[in-house]
Structure formats: structure tokens, C-alpha cells
Amino acid sequence: MKFQILQEKLKEGLSIIERVVSRSLTLPILNNVLIEAGKNFLCLSSTDLEIGIKWWALTKTEKEGSITVPSKLLSGFVGLLPNKKIEAGALKNDFFSIECEECKTKIKGLSAEEFPLIPKVSKEEFISVKSSEFCRNLAQIADIPALSATRPEISGIYFSFQKNQIISASTDSFRLGEKKMTPLKSSLLSPKTLIVPQKTIKEVINIFGIKETELKIYFSPNQIMFESLMQETDHPEVQLVSRLIEGSYPNYQEIIPKKFTTKLILNKEEFLAQLKQASLFSSKTGEIKLKREDSRVEILSQNTELGEHESFIYSKIEGEKFEISFNHRFLSDGISKTKSEDISLELNGDSGPGVVRSPGDDSYTYVVMPIKGN
Amino acid sequence: MTNQELWQAVLAQIQLNISQANFATWFKNTEISHQKEGRILVLVPNSFVKEWLQNKYNKNIFKILHDLDCNIREVEYQIGKAKIEPKKEEMIMPETDQLEFQEFKVNKDTNLNPRYTFDTFVVGPFNELPHAAAVAVSKKPGIVYNPLFIYGGVGLGKTHLIQSIGNEIDSAFKKNKVRYISSEKFTSEVVSSIKNQTIEQFKAKYRDIDTLIIDDVQFLAGREKTQEEFFHVFNILYEKNKQIILSSDRPPRAINSLTERLRSRFEGGMIADVSAPDLETRMAILKTKAQEKGVEFGEEIYQYIASVIKNNIRELEGALNRLVIYENLNHKKPDMEATQTLFKNILSSQNRVVTPRKIIQVVADFYDLKEREILNASRKKEIVRPRQIAMFLLRQELKSSFPSIGRKFDGKDHTTAIHSYKKILREVETDKKLEEEIVLIKEQILAS
Fold first, then answer.
1. Domain named AAA+ ATPase: which ranges (chain B) (predicted)?
2. Residue B302: exposure state from Cβ atoms within 10 A (0-12, 13-18, ≥19)
């Protein structure tokens, strides 16, 4: 194997595929990156046996071949090299050689034969989205799931891919976020509902969030694949393949209240700032209280050791009087993810779910359960 | 050779050819699911393993299998249900009043609430028998006590117990399909399937259940069509040795308007009653609950609560919550005096609700009569008895005077009232069944 590539390009590729390299003791080869020099492309792959990532770049290949090299070491080393042309190749006994300007390095690798095969996903049906926008949308709900050994299905993010709409949702059983999006193109024959591990979605956001290209999503019964194409030519640039979580997602639509007893319209930044102040004086459970005072909302918090705090915020209030407690983190998490200047907060009594939305935009819904009032 | 032996033979030989790390990674949780006409289907836990076995080891695996059995011509790999990894210890969150989405707490397939387990069930002399029966059933569903019928008063842990059985069976026997349903829900399913003419689907759904748990079967009383459907479901399951678990607030023979054939079936298995806990157990329960909530109160406080709340474990928990709230509001632990004032209100309100009307109403309900019938002068045997019981309870519970009792029942003489009172008092001592009935009626009077 022998190829030439620019340092910058190689560094970019390594930074992407490095994300899923696991520190595996049982199978040391998982610490490595698979380097394959094909005809005109260099391909880097890594996997932790749940997610697999492949990255391609155009290269000048003198001799085709493949090898695996410890990923941390390689990316650390390449990062220190100047942005010049690198000549790399495989030597005898699984050594990987790098030559760049004045330096000449040999890294001990492992044979490519042992590297796991990343599962293939059929390209029959796909749906495509605008990469950066899709990731920004997902980021609104990606932090919600909590790892749960007893309920693995809610530890992931729920997706329903339909011809003209993508619905995603996540929950940790105290709060729930739902985000609706529209696809760019779709060749779906039937709607697909599935649960994707939270880690996968976070990696998708990290890797594809900075790209302004089209992101294609492919499906197979047990896997999902995200793929972006190269700008220069019609060849995949990054492919991320992940397992899915088995099980059926709870029927979360039932949770989203259809009515409300009180509706507040609040200035987002101001409300968040006041919640933050109040949070410093909340009790161990993070409890803060909201209360109606005429046309204002009073925010109260109390901590036996630290003291008390109260503040007021003007609000449009519609409906009944109220007094309700929330975990400040749950509440501000949902509000900070909205994308509008004002937010609406709908309440359903002191022990019913509260709903956060952006007025005039029903693509994002955040439902949060209160803390039981005393 | 069985599938298991065959695969073990493959594993034994393969491990000689590959490294230990590879062997552990690629062959963990694999098995042969079935073979047919020379085709072997190997179940693998995920796509990575499938790809790997298919592309790297297939030749080896096939050769070994072929050597063992020359009829084998083909090996296929399929992603099976991933074995559940040993559960990690859940992070124990400090118990707060943070509310959850109720819908999520319940397991969708079985309808069980995973919170109910045997571990959190406090056993005392009052519930030893049902607990032992429940544990036995959960170990050998369908074999030991079938049906298992558990009865007892409100808030004594029947639901906890039967749901624990379900959860235990669900986790120990993966293939056992458990379904928990309240009899109310069952009734409404019957009604809607009749309305939508989907009674066949309804039957089919219950036919492949392996463990059927029905809560509060006393509500089936008087619903004939539902009873009939339930009777069929019961028979189908019973014949196939499927476990049936029932709970009720009274023994089968005390459930009125229950058809005879159902009653005898309920009594055919094991009947166990949960009675009210004794003082020591009530204290033990309080302490366990307090520990769950991460709070602690003085010994004499527990003793006081246990001594005033006698018949209901749920109320014990409620009482504890009151103490916790008091502590949060006043930033100090409640002392004896505070506790007494805290509970004065609940206790007095509990007594206040008993009225003569209520007693008559409950008695009439219990024996499935109309209030009017009891109050009339009818001398029918099935009415005379309940009327005497009503008179007895009016005297015993409310200390009403005999003449006033007589007046309530269509102007009967006070001697009739005295006679009724004495008669029941006397019979209670000898007639176990009557005693039980009266206890149940009293409970309902207090509960409703």
C-alpha cells in the first residue's frame, strides 16, 4: 500500500472517525483505525461494534492495500505535522510508514484482516434532509433521554420517517421533547418508525452538523445509515452506520395535553435569567415555584441552608390562577431549546404536565412534569 | 444431536483456531435456532457479528457442521433478539416529589407496573400465606396453585402481591406471556368487542396468554355477558395449564351475583386471604417506607401512627407523606405533639362519614338488594337476613337506640330490633362465614 495525501485532509478524516474508537480490552483491534487505499480514494473506518464510521477522501494511490493503526496515536501524530503532503504506506510486519517533509515515522499496526466488517445497509429506500438544519433540529431534543437499564427503549430517540414529515421524540419519563421536520427528498415506500441510540444521534450532530450538504438516511431492519456525499464528486464522504434499539416506543402522543388551564406568554431571555437566579436558591430537589400575582408571574425558591429568593416577570396570562413547582433544570432545559423571542408555557393544574412551545410554531413541543405541590 | 449440542461442538472446535479475544467477541450469545432439511439457522446478537461470521468464519463453521452431520448443506445467519445484558445497578435517585409521566411506568406488553416486586413487599403473619403461595406460583406458573385467588380488604397489598407475581414470571420466564388487567378494563373490552363485533379477536388475544392476572374480580358481579366471556377465557387457559391469578376484596362465595360455575372455578385452586397487619408489622412497614423515602422519625412517632391507622397500608404511606411534608415546611422533625395534631383531622373525618343511610346502603349493595327492599316489611328469607345485619350494624356502629332503629325499618317494633341485634351477635360467634361478611361490610362502610 502506498498513497499521498495532504496533512490537513488526513487530519480532518481522523478527527471524524476517531469519535467512535472505543478503548476495548477484549478486542484490541477496536482501538485501531482501518486505513484502506483504493483506486482513487483513501478510506478510513472505525467502529465500537455499535456504531461504524467510514470516511473517504480523494488521494493519489500508488499501490492499493490496507492496514490498521492505533487511532489515538496516529491522530495525535498527524496533528503535529505541518500542513504539507504526506506519503504513507504499509511496510512488512504490519508497520505503517509516514513521511512528511523531514520526518520519517513507522507505526506498529495490526493486520486489516482482523478488523470488524461494518454492516451494509440497503440503499433501496432513503429520505434526505439538509444536514446542518437537521442536526440543529435534533439538538433541541437530543439531550433529554436518560440511560435506563430497565427501560432501554426510552434511552434512545424515537423517529417516525414519513413521506412528507419526520417526527422525532425523546423522554426520560419526567419530560418529553418532540420535534417535527420536513425532509428534502424521500423515496420511502412505507413509513419507518424506529429508535436510535442517543449516542448515535449525538455523533450525527457532531459530524454532520457543520456540513451544509444533503444528508441521506438509509434503513435496514436492524440498522440505520447516515451518509453525506463529497462536494467534488458523487462519492460518499462520510457514512455512519448504527444499530437500532429494539422494542416499541411508548405511545407518547397521549402525554401531550390537548388543553390547558392557564397559558403564559413570557420573554424567553428574561424568564431564563430569572430562573437561573432562582435556581441558586432552590432546594436539593431543584424545586422552584411559579405563582400568579395579578398580571405578573412570581418566581420563588427557598433553601433552608442558603436562603430565599423571589422575583417577578410580566407575562400575558390567560386562564386560571396557578401555583406550581418545577425542577428548574427541567424547565429551563426545555425553554432554552426554543428558537423564538417569546415562549408560551401552558399549565394543567399543579400536578398536570406543563407544555413549552414557541408561539406560532408547532414543530417543537416540550412537556415537563411538575414537582408535587405541598 | 440437539441444536444446542451441535453448536457447542462447533464452538469447541472453533476456539482452537482463533484467538481468545476474537472468540469472546464474535461467538458470545450465538446459538442455533433451528435446522430444517440441511439448513442451519444461527442466531447472532447484532449485525457486526452477522457480517463477521458470514464473511470470515462461515467456511470453518460449515466444515465443522458438515463433519458432524453430513446432511447439512447450508448455514444461514440471522439477527435474533439480543440477550439482555445483566442489568446494571440503577442509579438510586433521592426520592422527591418530581412527578413522572404515568403512562411510562407501566410495561406496555404486560400492563404491569415494574415497581411492584417481592423485594418491596413486607411479609408479616397476616400475609404469610398469600405471599408464600404467590412466590410458589411465580416459580412454577401454571403448575402449583391454579387459579390463585387472593382476597382481602382495601389497601392491604393485594395488587402489589399479584403484580409482583407477574413481574417475577415476566423476568424469569422470557417466553411466558403475562397480562395484567383490572376487571373494569376487562369488562369494557368485552363491551367494546361486542359493539364492534370483534369478539373473536378479543378471544384470540386472551387465548395465547400464559399468565393472566385479573384484579378486583368482585366488579364482575352482575355483569353476565362479561362473566360468560371470562368463563370461556378461564376454561381455555385452565385446560392448557396456564396460570390464572385473581384478586378480590372478598372470598368467591361472598361475591354476589357471580354465576355458580365461575364461583366454583375460583374456589378450585388456592384461596388465600390478606388480613390487616398487626402492630409490629405496621411499624415494620412504616420503617421500610421511611427508608425508601430517605427519611427518619422517632420510634414513638412510628408507634403512634401504627396504633391509629390499623386497617390500611396505603393510609400508612399517606401518613408518612404528611410527616415528610410537615418536616419540609417547618424545617424540623415532627414531635409527638405535632404528630397528634397532624392526624387528629384525618382520624375524626374517618369516623364522621358513617351514617345510618350509608350502613343500609352498603348492606343492600353487598347482598345485591335494593335499599327499598331492606326497609320494607317483606318477610322473604333472603331479605330478612340482610335486614337483621343492617339493624345489628346500626346498633353496634352508631349506638342507635332500638326504637329508632325500628322506626327506620317501616315502623317496626323496638323488640324486633333487639331480637335482630341479639340474633346476629350470637350467630357471629359460631358462624365463620357470617363473621367474614360482617367484617367486609364494615370495611366497605369505612372505605366508601
1. 144-276
2. buried
Whole-angstrom Cα distance, residue B4 to residue A13?
45
Residue B285 and residue B254 in one domain:
no
**Residue closest to B245 by CA, chosen among B152, B157, B150:** B150
Query: A229 near A236, Cβ under 8 Å?
Result: yes
Q: Report long-range pairs for B289-292 (Cβ below 8 Å, ≥24 apart).
A: B289/B316, B289/B317, B289/B320, B290/B320, B292/B95, B292/B120
Its pTM stands at 0.65
Chain B residue with minimum CA distance to A285? B96
Residue B346 lies in a domain: yes
- Tell me the C-alpha distance between B288 and B331, whole Å: 23
**H or E element that contains B416:** helix B414-430
Residues in chain A: 374
Q: In angstroms, what CA-CA distances link B389 with A160, B31, B360, B369, B384? A: 62, 66, 9, 13, 9
Answer yes or no: is pLDDT of A170 > 90. yes
The answer to whether B55 contacts A117, with C-beta atoms less than 8 Å apart, is yes
Report residue B47's pLDDT band, with 50, 70 and 90 as the boundaries.
Answer: confident
For testing contact with chain A, the best of B49, B50, B93, B99 (most A CBs within 10 A): B99
pLDDT category of residue A242 using cuts at 50, 70 and 90: very high
DSSP single-letter state for residue A152: G
Rounded to a whole number, what is the distance in angstroms from the first to the last CA of chain A? 71
A151 Cβ under 8 Å from any chain B Cβ: yes
Cα–Cα distance measured from residue B181 to residue B169, given in angstroms and rounded to the nearest whole number: 16
Are B61 and B72 within 8 A, CB to CB? no
pLDDT at position A15 is: 93
Q: In what order do the strands lie in the sheet with B31-36?
A: B31-36, B39-44, B74-79
Per the rule left: phi > 0, alpha: psi between -120 and 50, beta: everything else, A215 is beta
Same domain, B150 and B252: yes
The CB-side HSE value for B236 (13 A sphere, CA atoms) comes to 16
CB contact under 8 A, A222 and B82: no
CA atoms within 13 A on the CB side of B338: 14
List strands edge to edge, sheet with A65-70: A65-70, A32-37, A41-47, A51-58, A236-243, A223-229, A214-220, A126-130, A185-186
Give the least confident one: A76-90, A259-273, B138-152: B138-152
Our measurement of the distance from residue B40's CA atom to the centroid of its chain's CA atoms, rounded to an integer in Å, reads: 43
Distance separating alpha carbons of residues B271 and B252, to the nearest angstrom: 9
Domain boundary among B241, B274, B307: B274
Q: Cell 343511610 sits at which residue?
A: B357
Taking only the tens place, the pLDDT of each residue in B382-418 is: 888 888 898 898 888 888 888 888 888 888 888 988 9
Pick the CATH number of A126-253 from 1.10.150.20, 3.30.70.100, 1.10.10.60, 3.10.150.10: 3.10.150.10
Q: What angle do CA B310, B312, B318 make, to 5 degrees?
A: 105
Helix ranges (DSSP H) in A282-355: 328-336
Question: In angstroms, how far is the first alpha carbon of chain B from the final one?
Answer: 64
Diameter of chain B by CA atoms? 99
Q: What 3-state class would DSSP assign to B309?
A: coil
Does B325 contact A at CB distance below 8 Å? Answer: yes
Strands A361-368 and A175-181: antiparallel
Assembly ipTM: 0.75
Architecture (CATH level 2) of domain A2-114:
Roll (3.10)
Identify whether the C-beta of residue B374 lies closer than 8 Å to the C-beta of residue B386: yes
Q: Does B98 touch chain A (CB under 8 A)?
A: yes
Locate all alpha helices (DSSP H) within B31-101, ordered by sequence. 47-52, 58-68
